[in-house]
Amino acid sequence: MTWYYYLVIAGLGLIFGSFFNVCIYRMPLGKQLGNRSACPSCGMMIRSYDNIPLVSFVVLKGRCRGCGSPISWRYPVVELSTALLFVLIYWWSVSIVPGEIGVSGGDAFVPELIIGLLMVSVLIISVGADVSHGIVPNRATFPGMALVLAAVVGVSLYRGQPGRIGGSLVSAVIGAGFLFFAGVLYGLLFMKPGGDEEFRTGIGMGDVKLMIVIGLALGYFQWYLVIAQLILGYLVGAIVALILMLFTVLGRKDRLPFVPFLATGAVVTLIWGQTLVDWYLKLLR
Q1: What is the pTM of this model?
Q2: What is the domain count for the chain?
Q3: Number of CB atoms found within 10 A of residue 282's CB
Q4: CB of 98 closer than 8 Å to CB of 144
Q5: Which residues share a beta bridge with 63?
């Protein structure tokens, strides 16, 4: 029955991915999430049978049924990405988590799955909003902080390991604090005041708030994983930026969203972070 669990989690990922698309579009614009979806070009309300994840995009050939305007590729990409990430996180929860926290495995449901899915959900919305609007919406990060913290507390108490709560909080402070002060230092060294601003930082406060969510989730396992996540995020970001600059896709003064790299580092560290840390420590011996 193992395949059944993966099929269910993939289906949930498609459904949640559809909702995340709504969040990505509406949250940065301050729009209500509960209203029915409509075509942004002609305003026609989208019928339920035209709102089936992935399927509707294929059937409609990527165009609005009413006016024929193209539908953004963001919609199927987010839906498919969410399904794949949900499956990956489920695999991690049943295959890796038991060994990491020292409990018996073999269960179809591991409560740490909740922490992983919550973190990934906030990351998907934040990445989409940052890429599309240049904003990491508080309407995603603030509820994300509350939900991840609640999950950490609940799972820690369920496991009889309340010390993990402290590690989670410490990790959140370290991650957010480092990102904030790194941004301030970058602003002091490389950026000049603009317009009515007295000072500009090299990082957005939305990124810092997102780091609290990431730190809370990673810190449940080990507080130092947030350090590995930051190093990995900066490394991936630097490599991508250099490649884009090399091929003149990105100029030195062009903005490159940082949230996708934070998110990449977070997912990789959540799943393989302890393995990477152990490998690095062996190199130092």
Answers
A1: 0.92
A2: 1
A3: 8
A4: no
A5: 70
